[in-house]
Amino acid sequence: MGAKRALIVDDSRSARLFLARILEKFELDVDSADNAESAIEYLASHRPDVIFMDHLMPGMDGFQAVQAIKNNPRTATIPIMMYTSQEGELYLGQARALGAVGVLPKTIKQADVSKVLYQLHLVADRRHSEQTTFKPINVPGPERVLPHQVVPGDAGAPVALTATALREQFAELRRALVAGIDTQTERITTEVRALLLEALPPPAVAVPPPRPPVPWVWVVACVALAVALGSTLLWWRAVNLLDTVTVELAQLRGAVAANPVALGSPSAGGTVGAGMTAPERSGTAVAPISGTELGAAPAEPAAPAAAAALVGTRRGLPTESKPTVVQVPYGADALGGLRLEAVRQLVYRLARENVNGVVDIKTFAGRFCLFGNAADGFSLAPDEALFAKCDVVGNPSDDALSPAQRTPLALANLVGDVRHSTHGSLQVQSSVGDPAITAIPYPPVSNDLTAGEWNRAGVANNRIEIRVR
What we know:
It is a single chain. By secondary structure, this protein is of the alpha/beta class. It is built from 14 helices and twelve strands. The protein is extended. The relative contact order is 0.07.
């Protein structure tokens, strides 16, 4: 069997050379690629035994490359080891969910690489109790033939130890010795560092200088002045509010006396409803206008309201024809926080009621009028700004997410838990909806269109829709 082969994918030339030296110590042939696209081209005609994949690279990143390799039947069985500077259970879970066998730190050590190679059965484990490097050759004592001796009449007899065999044995001993020295050096360095830290005296605690005495007289005077100013401001505001209410009440009385039918009263002496709109308060007879007709985005539901809409009565469950819509603020995680908790309550309630079907969760990204740039970030344009002055019209915070990052780890765990507990009778699916499908239409672009009018439609269209089918 030929030598094992490894592929290193990293945009850093020094990192590739460092890892290649470690792998060559284990007698592996090493090929390298400086980006993910070159690695995929290499795999079209080669099949390495293991792939070491960097995470952050220009163009296609490590996660996207792993997903592309695992989706190809020819390369799906090749083990892939990620290495990156990022840490944490979330990153490890995402890497393993895409098909990677594990994650190594960016500062790779020889001991870490050897452990991975042993686990993948690419090199023999030298820690085995049976010694296979040297084996004595049992030849009878009087008849033993030394390598430098020539026996007359027996020119074809095999020679037990040759120069090639000795060189191979010395090379193996040298590799084992270097590996042992590296391990011992690291252990000794760690122990010496710990001893030095124990021997050093504790750092001196700096004693802050004594604080000057607080001039309490001035403090009390400033507080009293602030209280007096605040009381005066509140009194002035209350007077203005009382005047405004008095004027509006007089207008309402005049409107009722002039046209009671237009205000919805059965007679001139009828009662005016508490939910009266601003045009009605001014005495003008108009039909009620909803927030959607005005182009205003509906506010995002609070956590109790969103949970009640999802886990209410059986009759109120979202269906294929009438989904439950939850708005997502700009820049917020669509399937995180309170929205994820509301989805969790709905799914577990359906599981308890033995509902069979699919909970389809779709996220729709709204398009916003934004100021800023890619380096410093983007923010919502002021409401009074003209739409023509927008630097970007879109949703950069949503477009920057990779397919793996759109599904948070908590939702992936929820999907697996529900599938396991219901034995597959209840499924949860998460997907990205078509941005062209809007909850309300965007206003037509004109010279006097403002950013506030556009962004109200963007807030309404930045949403998640939940259907049960």
